[in-house]
């Protein structure tokens, strides 16, 4: 009389007893925690979306400093959070605003926008959205490289072009278009209709070489259209150009090794320089 009934719950050899009321309490707590986690996750997503919309609104502002602050915050958000689900339906708007910032904004704004485009492409991942990102941003990025604007602006454009092409290109032809734009910075053409040949500053040259070789190593050597690069690999007497081309040739060799083509030359070497397609 007066004593509550208890259901015995034994573990492997244990003598612990658990009240049915205690079991109900544990179950209720688990459900509450689950609901709380779902609620927090939903609130977190909604919070990120709200903040993202605020940044987008700020990019429409006329004041350059406001747009710069919004771009800096967006770059930080891309680098700190997984925004894939949030930007999938907003990437076209973001891309349009980023391109406008590159075209009309200050050097700082253009650099931030270029970085934002690259991060947007990575966030979207390979697919139709990142391909559209590459197609829509390519003309504006190429224009920055063709006009030889501020060095930092060119470096940002080169980095961005490498990333969007790496993620969004669907065939070799699209990759070669970006390679050509980068090569025109490394080795500007001379001619009567070109005028004075500009020489890239060392930081720009380094960025262009890095971007160009990065894309080069993403394609197999057997797929490269050598006819389109005959002019590019012609050595000049300039010591600087000689060094540049030596670096490029090294990357060509590295690419060939990756494609397991080095065996063609193994009979002429003193020993096997490659094993299983690598040095």
From TrEMBL:
Residues 1-25 are annotated as: Disordered. Residues 28-232 form the Interferon-related developmental regulator N-terminal domain. InterPro entries: IFRD, Interferon-rel_develop_reg_N. Keywords: Membrane, Transmembrane, Transmembrane helix. The chain crosses the membrane at residues 204-222, 242-262. It holds the Pfam family IFRD. The keyword Transmembrane applies. The keyword Ligase does not apply. It comes from the Eukaryota. Signal peptide: none annotated. This is Interferon-related developmental regulator N-terminal domain-containing protein. It comes from Aegilops tauschii subsp. strangulata (Goatgrass).
